[in-house]
């Protein structure tokens, strides 16, 4: 990706190239020309929109992955895979008769489900911003799940479609 520092280098190269051809331009004019060539109104606009390179490492975060407690693998698969439409990303057990740690995902949303004591507390709530909440509602209602038929609730700030898993956890799908 082009950074502000690279754009400055482009302006410097442009100025040097023009000087070789006896075309004198100031540094500020060269910056303005590069900004225009990159599709910006002017250099100030380019400076606000182009990323800055950093020589100092910065702390960055990826998106969080909530861990929800589960107690019954079959019920978890019925709810999360069959009803909500998630797919298994991975499964882990230290041994065949030990608790399951399950990674699931759907359309960019990742959740981890754990039978391990201490990984998570039952009764957690996950807030999931999303788009096309009506499509999700229609999909879920069409499955005629025996333990829940969620509806959209209009809030002052947007719409909420809340589902409750068999272990007391809530997922609030929300659209502004």
UniProtKB/TrEMBL annotation:
Residues 60-176 form the VOC domain. Keywords: Antibiotic resistance. It comes from the Bacteria. CDD domains: BLMA_like. Pfam families: Glyoxalase_7 (PF19581), Glyoxalase_8 (PF20066). The keyword Acetylation does not apply. The keyword Transport does not apply. Signal peptide: none annotated. Belongs to the bleomycin resistance protein family. This is Bleomycin resistance protein. It comes from Pseudomonas kulmbachensis.
């Amino acid at each position: 990706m082009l950074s502000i520092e690279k754009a400055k280098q482009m302006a410097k190269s442009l100025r040097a190239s023009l000087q070789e051809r006896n075309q004198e331009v100031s540094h500020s004019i060269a910056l303005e020309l590069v900004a225009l060539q990159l599709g910006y109104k002017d250099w100030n606009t380019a400076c606000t929109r182009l990323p800055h390179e950093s020589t100092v490492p910065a702390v960055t975060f990826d998106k969080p992955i909530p861990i929800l407690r589960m107690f019954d693998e079959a019920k978890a698969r019925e709810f999360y895979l069959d009803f909500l439409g998630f797919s298994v990303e991975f499964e882990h057990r230290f041994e065949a008769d030990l608790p399951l740690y399950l990674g699931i995902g759907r359309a960019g949303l990742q959740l981890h489900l754990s039978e391990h004591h201490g990984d998570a507390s039952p009764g957690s709530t996950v807030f999931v911003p999303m788009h096309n909440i009506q499509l999700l509602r229609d999909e879920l209602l069409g499955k005629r799940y025996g333990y829940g038929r969620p509806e959209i609730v209009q809030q002052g700030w947007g719409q909420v479609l809340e589902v409750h898993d068999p272990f007391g956890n809530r997922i609030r799908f929300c659209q502004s």
